[in-house]
Amino acid sequence: MGEHGASKRAKGANRKSVPEPGRAPAPRPAKGAATRDTAETGTGARGTAKTGTARTGTAKAGTAKASADAAGKRRTATADPSRTAGPAAHRAAKPESRLAMVRRARRINRELAEVYPYAHPELDFRNPFELLVATVLSAQTTDLRVNQTTPALFAKYPTPEDLAAAVPEEVEELIRPTGFFRAKTKSIMGLSAALRDDFGGEVPGRLEDLVKLPGVGRKTAFVVLGNAFGVPGITVDTHFMRLARRWKWTESDDPVKIEAEVATIFPKSEWTMLSHRVIFHGRRICHARKPACGACPITHLCPSYGEGETDPEKAAKLLKYEKGGFPGQRLNPPPDYPGRPAPPLGASG
Predict the structure, then answer these.
(1) Model confidence pLDDT, tens digit, residues 35-74
(2) Smaller CB count within 10 Å for the chain: N or C?
(3) Distances from the Cα of 151 to the Cαs of 25, 175, 216, in angstroms?
(4) Which of the following is catalytic: 219, 268, 290, 323?
(5) Is 317 marked active-site?
């Protein structure tokens, strides 16, 4: 049988000559000879072409299936949220420039202003002296605990002169709930005496004067300056430090360095309110141990997205204070505060 089909003589031979059953075909059939097998299976150029086409089709089908499987795996990997790095993953492709970081930081501040238009200092106070004492007491405790403690303290000692002349043991007993009450008693009585003796019983409105008072550092001074005197300042507490690092505004863990670096990012007029917004966000959503990433409104600007719970329903259960439907930290919050006031000491709420 040739490459281009059986000859006319081969057709005739097929009708006249049939091989005996069971006999193996000759390795090279005689010219013009053809077996029943070749006739029945339609071999020749046409049969060979059909067989080859079938095999080629099978190969193509296998290749197509493999391609489809690979494409399916790619689609699955893309659709699986556990395989993505979050909204800010694209920033890992190349280092963020200083300009890009500043723009992102300022946008965070603007968006936090929309989330917390009611941000405020979370210590109850009626005058600079009360704010100064309350801020000193807030070290190593919550503003809520301070707010529950100071009403009795200020009722008994309303002025620096009164507190400076107090019996230390009585002051210790009043502020015991705030912790470290002996050291804090020494500080607030010491600063009260300094105000009485050096400043005529008035809280000074300058940083260099405030930091000379017992127990008063830069953080406390900026709280007082920003909220009692309207002097812009950046309050670097534990919440501010944590978020400034998570948002890549700084890599430092030194409060003074963080203050200086953040001050170069934002205009001075924004410093005080920026502090309130960042601290509000740290207390309510971006917690230290388990941030509520899935409930955070600025994930698209956060390079640390995914450090906390990303599932929206689970993250919602982590929200605190007014964001979680609970009382706030102040017993006497501002009128525009959307949450409930905190309960007094010893009360349930």
Answers:
(1) 444 333 444 444 444 444 444 444 444 444 545 454 444 4
(2) C
(3) 113, 10, 21
(4) 219
(5) no
